[in-house]
Amino acid sequence: MMVRGIRGATTVTANEEKEILSETIVLLNEIVRVNDVDPEQICSVFVTMTPDLDATFPARAIREMAGWELVPLMCSIEIPVKGGLERCIRLMVQVNTEKRQNEIHHVYLNEAKRLRPDLAR
């Protein structure tokens, strides 16, 4: 078994608590679904948001999901690069897995598909 990182990103339309929490759950659920991951396999989840999002902590949504209460979570602000994608939430899910690097599926939703069109489905 080895540790692999699974990247994901999404955007919200407004700096509103409900939408930030909802889109965070949608993104994490999609990462888990396409990679067939169980919370017991998760080492940690690193969450960033762009500086224009400050209505809530997105990790709060993850912590409230069944089975995720003990997964270590960390939130941070994304580096504010001029011209960067706005209202963006990013996840780096570190998982114990037997999968090879090329078997990992990264997830980009909403406007975040523009970040990595080569990886967006």
Automatic annotation (TrEMBL):
Key words of the record: Amino-acid biosynthesis, Aromatic amino acid biosynthesis, Isomerase
UniProt entry tagged with the keyword Cytoplasm: no
EC number annotated for this UniProt entry: 5.4.99.5
A GO biological-process term: amino acid biosynthetic process
InterPro entries from the UniProt entry: Chorismate_mutase_AroH, RutC-like_sf
Pfam family name, one: CM_1
GO function terms (MF aspect): chorismate mutase activity
Class of the enzyme per the UniProt entry, highest EC level: isomerase
Catalyses which reaction(s): chorismate = prephenate
SUPFAM superfamilies assigned: YjgF-like
Chain segments annotated as coiled-coil in the UniProt record: none
Residue numbers binding prephenate: 7, 90, 108
Top-rank taxon, per record: Bacteria
Protein name in UniProt: chorismate mutase
Taxonomic source organism: Paenibacillus selenitireducens
Lineage summary: Bacteria, Bacillati, Bacillota, Bacilli, Bacillales
